[in-house]
Amino acid sequence: MKEISSAEFEQVVLQGNKVVVDFYSTECPPCEALAPKFDNMAELYGEHITFVKIYRQGNRELAEQLGVKSSPTVLFFDNGKQVTDMISGGIKKSELVERLDAMLPKETVSTIKSKITKHTTYCDALIIGGGPAGLAAGLYLCQAKVNTILVDIQLPGGQVSTTHQVSNYPGFVEPQPGYMLSHHMSEQTRLCGTQYKVAVDVAHVDLHNKTVEIDAFETIQAKKIIIATGASPRPLGIPGEKEYKGRGISYCATCDAKYFNDKDVIVIGGGNSAVEEAEFITKFAKKVTMIHQFAEFTANKQAVEKILANPKVSVLFQSEPRAFTKQGDTMTVEYENLQTKERQTISADGIFVFIGMQPNTSLFGADLQTDNWNYIVADEDMQTNIPGVYAIGDVRSKKYRQITTAVADGTIAAIHISKELM
Question: What is the pTM of this model?
Answer without folding.
Answer: 0.80
